[in-house]
From TrEMBL:
NCBIfam families: PRK07564.1-1
Pfam families tied to this protein: PGM1_C_vert_fung (PF24947), PGM_PMM_I (PF02878), PGM_PMM_II (PF02879), PGM_PMM_III (PF02880)
Lineage, opening ranks: Bacteria, Pseudomonadati, Pseudomonadota, Alphaproteobacteria, Hyphomicrobiales
UniProt record similarity statement: Belongs to the phosphohexose mutase family.
Keywords of this entry: Isomerase, Magnesium, Metal-binding, Phosphoprotein
Residue intervals of the Alpha-D-phosphohexomutase alpha/beta/alpha domain: 13-147, 183-286, 294-406
PROSITE patterns per record: PGM_PMM
Name this polypeptide is given: phosphoglucomutase (alpha-D-glucose-1,6-bisphosphate-dependent)
Annotated organism of origin: Pseudorhizobium endolithicum
Catalytic activity: alpha-D-glucose 1-phosphate = alpha-D-glucose 6-phosphate
EC annotation from Swiss-Prot or TrEMBL: 5.4.2.2
């Protein structure tokens, strides 16, 4: 039954910030997906007879790779696979299933916020038994294995019917096709005050959610419409489609602009939310107020006790390095730990497992907590609704009073997408070469206090991650950060993160780009962005 297939290695299967991501035609090359899946299995030990979770965001090629993964898991000796009906599991739901049913690990098929379709992106990520993304030690082992792999094993069997719930046998392994939504909805109901949110909504508070043709549609319909009572149609673009209906499923002011404009219109809803391809990102907008992801983390942390699941308070907060320091001020006030990690959710897992932190966040529209080990879009959206219901204030009122109490961290990220790879690497090398001479130099009124290349030592296991982003810190606490994306699939993407702290409440109403203009100009001068990339402006500003 088990067939051993000779194969030749591919040299480019290095997982990035969040798994292996490539264009579909790359994944569709002979044995490409098989090689990577076998490399995952070859890098793990002790899974014989145990359970694996498999699911994806429903994008183009999802079902094909799920069939391959099921047959390869059977050949590798897993005892059981739990797979979402239709091949669907959002990233946080997969994390929950792994934890709840004590699986050995999971394979999540997604390229997250990247577009889907025959010529767009696909991805494979391995998650460990705590439900979180595999740490670097494992992703590196997978990459090393993929460079020398010579064969893979697969069972010869007909495809599993992914659309029918129930348990089936596949060459001696059990396959259980599960409802992808039920366990997740139950978890959310255990964390948040659904009664209070239901009253808020029945009292006329209008909520809209844009699932962007991606995985959260069925989750949001069940939770927001069925359980919380929002009128039918409150969840838009609610059917997961292989090409996301042509949407770029990235919840930000550029790609979720329709929703934003609707909430801002005179008669628009009171609250708008959106999430990404695999359901781990979120965007929250209220009337007259867009909440930056960095502020969202800080405000959720400061108001955590509003939600029943966090009524005892939080143990600590972690944020990725480029995320603004707004959360740091909350941690200071609460007298709890604050941790600054490299970009990517995999760095939060150890801190959560050790009980050091409860909530985590990234500037890239990612927020979550130790209820799972991934960021969680709907969780953040429900947390906001819970806070609004408890405080009986609007989004704008909550944000403004937070700024008044803690000060405002003006924040923006400028992305230069699909830049020539050599030019982008040259820009980063140019910055590294300047690090030691920058301190003391002035750019307009800004004087550099310190400059470094961020490196992180994990406080739990001592592992070290270097070259995680160039930081230029100015006197007074403003800063710019430069890094190259680890999730793109063509060329390089330069990310420039800009932040200024403003304690003075009379200066909290400035337009963000204006408030950061001098820092943006300094970033260009220091990194020579325009000359090196040949671009006069960023492709995306968030
Ligand atoms: C980006 C974000 C990072 C996030 C990662 C995965 O990575 O910056 O914060 O964790 O995407 O998110 P990069 O390397 O491109 O900057 V998701 O929702 O795409 O899994
Ligand atoms: Co995502």
């Amino acid at each position: 039954m088990i067939r051993t297939v000779p194969t030749a290695p591919y040299k480019d299967q290095k997982p990035g910030t969040s798994g292996l991501r490539k264009k579909v035609p790359v994944f569709a090359q002979e044995n490409y997906a098989e090689n990577f899946i076998q490399s995952i299995f070859d890098s793990l030990e002790g899974f014989q007879g145990k359970m694996l979770v498999i699911g994806g965001d429903g994008r183009y090629y999802n079902r094909e790779v799920i069939q391959k993964a099921l047959k390869m898991a059977a050949a590798a000796g897993f005892g059981k696979v739990m797979v979402g009906q239709g091949g669907i599991l959002s990233t946080p739901a997969a994390s929950n299933i792994i934890r709840k049913y004590k699986a050995f690990g999971g394979i999540v098929l997604s390229a997250s916020h990247n577009p889907g379709g025959p010529n767009e992106d696909f991805g494979i990520k391995y998650n460990i038994g705590n439900g979180g993304p595999a740490p670097e030690k494992i992703t590196e082992a997978i990459f090393e294995r993929s460079k020398i792999i010579g064969e893979y094993r697969i069972v010869d069997a007909p495809d599993v019917d992914l659309d029918m719930l129930g348990s089936f046998e596949l060459a001696g392994m059990t396959v259980e096709v599960i409802d992808p939504v039920a366990d997740y909805a139950e978890l959310m109901e255990s964390l948040f005050d659904f009664g209070a949110i239901r009253s808020l909504i029945s009292g006329g508070f209008r909520v809209v959610m844009d699932s962007m043709g991606a995985v959260t549609g069925p989750y949001a319909k069940e939770i927001i419409e069925t359980r919380l009572g929002a009128p039918a149609g409150s969840v838009r673009n609610a059917t997961p489609l292989p090409d996301f209906g042509g949407h770029h499923p990235d919840p930000n002011l550029v790609h979720a602009k329709e929703l934003y404009d609707d909430v801002m219109s005179t008669d628009g809803p009171d609250f708008g939310a959106a999430s990404d391809g695999d359901g781990d990102r979120n965007m929250v907008v209220g009337k007259d107020m867009f909440v930056t992801p960095s502020d969202s983390l800080a405000i959720i942390a400061a108001n955590a006790r509003c939600a029943p699941g966090y009524a005892k308070g939080i143990a600590g907060i972690a944020r990725s390095m480029p995320t603004s320091a707004a959360a740091d001020r909350v941690a200071e006030k609460l007298g709890i730990g604050i941790y600054e990690t490299p970009t990517g959710w995999k760095y939060f897992g150890n801190l959560m497992d050790a009980g050091k932190v409860t909530v985590c966040g990234e500037e890239s529209f990612g927020t979550g907590s130790d209820h799972v080990r991934e960021k969680d879009g709907l969780w953040a959206i429900l947390f906001w609704l819970n806070i609004i219901a408890a405080r009986k204030e609007s989004v704008a009122e909550i944000v403004r009073s937070h700024w008044a109490e803690y000060g405002r961290n003006y924040y923006s990220r400028h992305d230069y997408e699909e830049v020539d790879t050599d030019a982008a690497n040259g820009l980063m090398e140019g910055l590294r070469a300047k690090l030691s001479i920058l301190p003391g130099q002035s750019f307009g009124d800004l004087k550099v206090a310190a400059a470094d290349d961020f490196s992180y030592t994990d406080p739990i296991d001592g592992s070290v991650s270097t070259k995680q982003g160039i930081r230029i810190l100015f006197e007074g606490g403003s800063r710019v950060v430069f890094r190259l994306s680890g999730t793109g699939t063509s060329g390089a993407t330069l990310r420039v993160y800009v932040e200024r702290y403003e304690p003075d409440a009379s200066r909290h109403g400035i337009e963000t780009q204006a408030a950061l203009a001098d820092l943006i100009a300094a970033a260009d001068e220091i990194a020579e962005i325009k000359t090196r990339t040949g671009r006069s402006a960023p492709t995306v500003i968030t």
